[in-house]
Amino acid sequence: xxxxxxxxxxxxxxxxxxxxxxxxxxxxxxxxxxxxxxxxxxxxxxxxxxxxxxxxxxxxxxxxxxxxxxxxxxxxxxxxxxxxxxxxxxxxxxxxxxxxxxxxxxxxxxxxxxxxxxxxxxxxxxxxxxxxxxxxxxxxxxxxxxxxxxxxxxxxxxxxxxxxxxxxxxxxxxxxxxxxxxxxxxxxxxxxxxxxxxxxxxxxxxxxxxxxxxxxxxxxxxxxxxxxxxxxxxxxxxxxxxxxxxxxxxxxxxxxxxxxxxxxxxxxxxxxxxxxxxxxxxxxxxxxxxxxxxxxxxxxxxxxxxxxxxxxxxxxxxxxxxxxxxxxxxxxxxxxxxxxxxxxxxxxxxxxxxxxxxxxxxxxxxxxxxxxxxxxxxxxxxxxxxxxxxxxxxxxxxxxxxxxxxxxxxxxxxxxxxxxxxxxxxxxxxxxxxxxxxxxxxxxxxxxxxxxxxxxxxxxxxxxxxxxxxxxxxxxxxxxxxxxxxxxxxxxxxxxxxxxxxxxxxxxxxxxxxxxxxxxxxxxxxxxxxxxx
Length: 533
Description:
Shape: elongated
Helix content: 25-40%
Number of helices: 10
Structural class: alpha+beta
Strand content: 25-35%
Distance between the termini: 42 Å
Largest sheet: 14 strands, antiparallel
């Protein structure tokens, strides 16, 4: 009996690990010209649409004033649009009635607030009726000077939000809760020690608690300190189809506060308490004060607060980082199509069998493909967003238009965040393409789970509660990475996606998108092992 030995090749066996699979998939990607062109289209679309928005956007106020020094930014404004800039260069509201006097050096002022009432506009009668805006407030304020936009710190009672320590328009810390009234007065104290301003509150004038402390760097030796009252415009807003808002009963409101037990210590002058309206009242002849027997009654209107992006009014004409990123969706569609074709093209041409013959581990192939398309999506998103934001800002500055300020760290987070959105969307599309094996179906599904929820939010097709839910649970939650500006709770407005705000924090939104991508990849890997090539 003759035994035939099996043939053994003299060549050493080749390696068949993840590195080799990754190299093979990368070679496929870079050798197919259409896929490279598709990724470049994504970059150009994302950057190009953003640059078009920068070049042809709404004219806004030129940044001509010196808000950090307390000057109003009103010179050189396009189309007459003007607004006040705060110490950090952000648009602010700075309008209130003030009764005070100069404080030279260190000192403190104490007062009791015994009531806070107001008038709000009525939609039915057209006249003011008793009522009060939720952020109407009264209390003690130290202000660098009486120019709008100057640095300040205040300890105040807000109508529906209790005692607050607020500073430089954006800072806010809560103190004693509850509304103020004759049976529930609030004692307030404001002290200055150099550049450090501290606010205290008390329910009885005996037991005091520190509410907050802030350092106003560069504060002048003599500052304006005293009582103030203000009340923002009253507006009952609702969300309309198309992303707009409408209001009922909107218009200026007034607040009237009663103060007593006013006491001072430190570097006060011996002068009289004098009244001023900071800014320009919307309704003349309403604001003012009265003093009798040590009791002060102040009536004011306006607000001391930031003006958020999307709030409306003149500052809405200012450019934002979100404006430069409006091409994200167009760029995403390009990279999603490339990611889908990276799988479906092999199935359509029968080349997938050769891929699995070369790398029998199908999970390894899927992982290698995911790394390649994820990296391609990330690079496309990074380039597209980076070009759009950085060049868009340069165009805005060159045209002399005002842009909402944003820190370099936040700007970097938005650019990298957009790249992460593109990367995860590409991998999600790859996983869906592996599951359905059809390019058109893959793109349609990605549009449904990512694009449509955001479109519904932008166009207000659904109620705000439904939009809020969709942007919490669907992959479109990842767009929270593009939220640039904070939602200030001390400013009443509809914080919605059409004005640049999302229900989840940026990294929480990314976690939702990542969870969907991981689940889709897991299902794709399972089906890849269960089905024939």
